[in-house]
């Protein structure tokens, strides 16, 4: 028995990591997610990029209509659709990670909680907003690309969709920065968000992200982080 075990390379049975990039609109999430993906490819490590909202699914198309102001939706209803859009991807994320593929997500549940809470609707507070996220896979690392909304607004293509206004962006930024300070029950997921200055050039930011992500991925590869946790 032990002879057989000796023949099995434990590294082959390691799970992949689950890494999330968060940030304001136009903060560079998609650009950086792609660059990170390339690093994995260059290192010959299996990787899969995902993005939320995933506008390709029927639920994602409803979200797209809302963001483009084609349809109106009640705040709770759109919040639950954003969450459902993550839930419909859970089986895929878990399967990929279990087979050793690292998943890089361009936004995940922190966006869901923060953007809805930032609307300031007293009936949709932070605690309510995070309830539908309970049970989702919990990322191994969440990096918030922090940038002044005035700077993101100067980047092309800003202002066409819902939430793309200065006031909302300021509130979202503040909420993301405050996540680590919040004391809401025993949910420690927020405290894991790493706020990174994303004001540098594309390559500079990519390097800073990789410096954070690489050791965490290596820890996952060594089996030090155990199995993928869930949000509680
Ligand atoms: N939302 C929500 O309410 N609830 C949820 O649960 C979820 C999301 C998941 C759409 O999100 C909206 O959905 C969003 C949150 C809400 N709110 N709004 N408004 P999205 O992810 O589909 O789209 P987005 O984040 O709003 O925008 P984006 O265009 O995808 O931005 P980005 O990915 O962060 O940026 P980018 O495409 O990488 O870069 C933007 C431009 O800047 C581009 O021209 C780049 O070449 C340039 N760029 C990138 N990095 C740099 C640097 N370092 N320097 C200079 N220029 C740069
Ligand atoms: Mg993007």
UniProtKB/TrEMBL annotation:
HAMAP family assigned: Thymidylate_kinase (MF_00165)
Domain Thymidylate kinase-like intervals: 21-209
Name under which the protein is recorded: dTMP kinase
Species assigned in the record: Bionectria ochroleuca (Gliocladium roseum)
Family matches, as InterPro entries: P-loop_NTPase, Thymidylate_kin-like_dom, Thymidylate_kinase
SUPFAM superfamilies, A to Z: P-loop containing nucleoside triphosphate hydrolases
Kinase among keywords: yes
This protein's UniProt keywords: ATP-binding, Kinase, Nucleotide biosynthesis, Nucleotide-binding, Transferase
EC number: 2.7.4.9
Lineage of producing organism: Eukaryota, Fungi, Dikarya, Ascomycota, Pezizomycotina
Family, similarity comment: Belongs to the thymidylate kinase family.
């Amino acid at each position: 028995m032990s002879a057989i075990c000796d023949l099995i390379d434990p590294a082959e049975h390691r799970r992949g990591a689950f890494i999330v990039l968060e940030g304001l609109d136009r903060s560079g999430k998609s650009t950086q997610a792609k660059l990170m993906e390339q690093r994995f490819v260059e290192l010959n490590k299996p990787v899969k990029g995902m993005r939320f909202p995933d506008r390709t699914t029927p639920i994602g198309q409803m979200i797209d209509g809302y963001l483009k102001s084609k349809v109106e939706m009640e705040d709770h209803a759109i919040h639950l659709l954003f969450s459902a859009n993550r839930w419909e991807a859970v089986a895929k994320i878990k399967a990929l990670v279990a087979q050793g593929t690292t998943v890089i997500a361009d936004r995940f549940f922190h966006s869901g909680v923060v953007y809805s809470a930032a609307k300031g609707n007293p009936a949709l507070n932070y605690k309510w907003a995070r309830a539908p996220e309970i049970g989702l896979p919990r990322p191994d690392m969440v990096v918030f690309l922090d940038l002044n909304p005035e700077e993101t607004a100067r980047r092309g293509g800003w202002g066409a969709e819902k939430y793309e206004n200065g006031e909302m962006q300021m509130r979202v930024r503040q909420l993301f920065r405050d996540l680590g300070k919040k004391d809401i029950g025993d949910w420690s997921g927020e405290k894991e968000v790493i706020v990174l200055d994303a004001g540098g050039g594309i390559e500079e930011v990519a390097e800073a992200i990789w410096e954070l992500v690489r050791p965490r991925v290596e820890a996952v590869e060594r089996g030090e982080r155990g199995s993928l946790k869930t949000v509680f």
